[in-house]
Amino acid sequence: MNVRIVILAFLAERSPAAYADDVIAQRVTASGLVDAPVPPIAPELTCLASERMGRLVSCDINPVTKTAVWFATEAGIRQWVLDGRLHVS
Asked: Using CA of residue 19, residue 21, residue 5, residue 71, what is the dihedral sign?
């Protein structure tokens, strides 16, 4: 399965929570849903956040740790529903 679909499913399923890159990478890898080795997550998240992809995810800065955290947008949640509500544990 495409890594972007799995990333979006992980974030949309847990909305409105936000997660750091390393946590997302860990859960996507552990899910076993990606067909190939999981590529670096940051470029995939940036792509999902792009206007071209419909801004399916967005990024915020955690005020405590000062690190980027990612979350699914309303558009991303709608896309997840259309994709069949894939569950990523």
From this structure: positive
CA distance 19 to 14: 10
Count of Cβ atoms closer than 10 Å to residue 14 Cβ: 14
The residue segments making up the domain with residue 44 are 3-82
Q: How big, in percent rounded to 5, are the helix, strand and coil portions of the chain?
A: 45, 10, 45
User: pLDDT tens for residues 19-46?
Assistant: 999 999 999 999 999 988 999 999 999 9
Are 44 and 88 contacting, i.e. CB atoms less than 8 angstroms apart? no
Q: How many domains does the chain have?
A: 1
Nearest to 72 by CA among 2, 4, 1: 4
Report cis status (omega within 30 of 0) of the bond before 16. Answer: yes
Q: What is the CATH number of the domain that holds 34?
A: 1.10.10.10
Tell me the pTM.
Answer: 0.94
